[in-house]
Amino acid sequence: MEKFTFIDLFAGIGGFHQAAKTSGGKCLFVSEIDKEAAKAYEANYNIETHGDITKVDINKIPTHDLLCAGFPCQPFSIIGNKNGFDDIRGTLFFEIAKILKYKKTPMIVLENVKQLATHDNKRTLTRILKTLDDLGYKTYWKILNALDYGLPQKRERILIVGFLDHSTIFSWPNKKSHYKPLGDILEADVDEKHYASDRIYNKRQEKHTSAHYPAIWHENKSGNVSSYPFSCALRAGASYNYLLVNGERRLTPREMLRLQGFPDEFKIVCSDSQTRKQAGNAVPVLMIRAVIKEVVNAFTEVARRKEKENHRVISARGFSRESNLRDQPVAYI
User: 27 an active-site residue?
Assistant: First the structure.
């Protein structure tokens, strides 16, 4: 894959960074308002993080090839019925749009919860796509599942990609036929602090018998318990016993990072509670990497095609028929 530059907005602990870096990308700018997440980001990627994106001088953001953003979704209920920027002022998506307007970023990859696709009777997504269209972008969107890209976690997210060059032809990455087994994710030696109380353990065992081992047991809001040979989606604000390994213990911070596709080289520099929150907010690295790969490939294919066409035009215009050596008599001295 060709080398490219990117910026990482609403960056969390760098799921986009991890995905883009392993695809040939170089990060030029990072924005993350959460100080603990920024601490983890800086420790792992050795790059300065900027805080609140609404307070960043847009002129200090470098020119870049790809804008990545897992933007917050909470403010969208205020979106009205007007067009363009007026629809999104006051939302954090506006900050993305503002950067795109002034920087003319060639490629974008955005991520959000899958409910964005149907929020407010689909009006929210329609406004977002309309805004990107007004800024000159050809867009594609789709709901993808991390389980289909090698991770043992059922995590569905909407991905929006866009290109300034409308001649770009983009295809979503193919699904993988299998995902990493839970046995490759789970740690062998786990501290006792991660085990559920006897009360919780007995309650789970009374409610459910699993057909899988190892398995992640999941209790929904109604109290129903189910289990799978993969994890349900990690959530930053979930109850402490939302997911239990084999119905007996909570996932460790390292296991949660593995479920999101972070390598074991990723340094854990924050508390267990902060790392759980960070992992729950992160994007699934392998899924994002697959999307970025296709985005960059589509972009570079357009560049190669145009270069080839330009070469063909220059060749045709630059030489007359009379100048073609194959048509000239050969002189011998």
Answer: no
